[in-house]
């Protein structure tokens, strides 16, 4: 049996949730822009895809940092925050804002 299996499984589920979030927001933003048939600036497409890619990379880093913390022997503080958590939340908020800009631009 894997030590701390429940914690590792929860960590991987959280990683997959970040991936789904990034894919959904990028997909909705790009689809909304393309469905209307109006010309959308290339920078906005690249910004949306780039931000989604950064979310995926940070989610991966977060998963590995938490994996090391789970396997560590010392007691962990429940209130501690990892820097990837803060950056991931900020990036998701920026992706939502960018999707809103797409929708406003398209309308």
TrEMBL record:
<feature type="domain" description="DUF202">
    <location>
        <begin position="6"/>
        <end position="67"/>
    </location>
</feature>
<feature type="transmembrane region" description="Helical">
    <location>
        <begin position="15"/>
        <end position="34"/>
    </location>
</feature>
<protein>
    <recommendedName>
        <fullName>DUF202 domain-containing protein</fullName>
    </recommendedName>
</protein>
<feature type="transmembrane region" description="Helical">
    <location>
        <begin position="46"/>
        <end position="65"/>
    </location>
</feature>
<dbReference type="Pfam" id="PF02656">
    <property type="entry name" value="DUF202"/>
</dbReference>
<keyword id="KW-0472">Membrane</keyword>
<keyword id="KW-0812">Transmembrane</keyword>
<dbReference type="GO" id="GO:0012505">
    <property type="term" value="C:endomembrane system"/>
</dbReference>
<keyword id="KW-1133">Transmembrane helix</keyword>
<dbReference type="InterPro" id="IPR003807">
    <property type="entry name" value="DUF202"/>
</dbReference>
<feature type="transmembrane region" description="Helical">
    <location>
        <begin position="86"/>
        <end position="106"/>
    </location>
</feature>
């Amino acid at each position: 049996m894997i030590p701390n299996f429940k914690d590792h499984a929860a960590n991987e589920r959280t990683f997959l949730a970040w991936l789904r979030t990034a894919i959904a927001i990028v997909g909705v933003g790009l689809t909304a822009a393309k469905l209307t048939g109006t010309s959308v600036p290339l920078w906005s497409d690249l910004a949306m895809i780039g931000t989604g890619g950064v979310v995926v990379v940070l989610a991966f880093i977060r998963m590995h940092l938490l994996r090391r913390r789970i396997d560590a022997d010392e007691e962990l503080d429940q209130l501690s925050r990892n820097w990837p958590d803060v950056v991931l939340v900020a990036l998701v908020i920026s992706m939502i804002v960018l999707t809103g800009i797409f929708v406003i631009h398209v309308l």
